[in-house]
Amino acid sequence: MILCLPDLITEDERRQILELIAEVEFDDGARTVGTALASIKNNREITALNPSMERIKRLVHQALARHEVLQSAARPRTMAAVMINRYGPGMFYGAHVDAPIIGFPAQVRSDLSFTLFLADPSAYDGGELVFEQGSGEQAFKLPARSVICYPTGQLHRVNMVTRGERLAVVGWLQSLVRDPLLRELLYDVATARRLVRERLGPGPALDVLDRAQSGLLRRYAET
Questions:
Q1: Where in the sequence is the domain holding 204, given as residue range(s)?
Q2: Which of 119, 9, 109 is nearest to 58 (CA)?
Q3: Looking at residue 88, which CATH number applies to its domain?
Q4: How many domains does the chain have?
Q5: For 147, how many CA atoms within 13 A lie in the half-sphere containing its CB?
Q6: CA 220 to CA 39: how far, in whole Å?
Q7: For 49-105, how does the pLDDT look when each residue is reduced to its tens digit (9 = 90+)?
Q8: Cβ-count burial of 117 within 10 angstroms (0-12 exposed, 13-18 middle, 19+ buried)?
């Protein structure tokens, strides 16, 4: 499931992140991947090793934690890592799959990847996040402060930027629920529960959904 959510962070939080980024020097993005991917990765990054990233990570973590829909869809257990990436004219990232294990020396399984857009779409041309699937391609270019979350095993690329600058936070989550199909089922149950609560209020229907959600989490969640 590919999930697009507007306004994950506030405008003030975006401003804080941009101010922190302005004080830091970007590195060659090809340095964070192996030899096989280095030839198709042309961007600039600020990695988790930079001290400024700790504050950015806290801001993003707080935003993820307070977003009810994202919590229902991702069931995050921990945030494996975050980094900032920047694409200027001529920069791109070819088709690839994100690493299944993130971090060193502490290693975390990456179940979900996310991109939090910091630049408005009008600020750059190109730079679409494209998912390559058997049924065709899906391209996304979301407004600033929006986030897109998707299974880490999804084949994707970032199209070449031809004008302006594409700036984003990218990160990876380990989920309480490893199986993406089970996560989607739990998301459907949570959505049904929310709709019943809003339209009918407390009652037998909500009780049944509460019991179903609790039972599924107890059976499949990994703590």
A1: 180-220
A2: 9
A3: 2.60.120.620
A4: 2
A5: 25
A6: 39
A7: 888 899 999 999 999 999 999 999 999 999 988 999 999 999 999 999 999 998 767
A8: buried
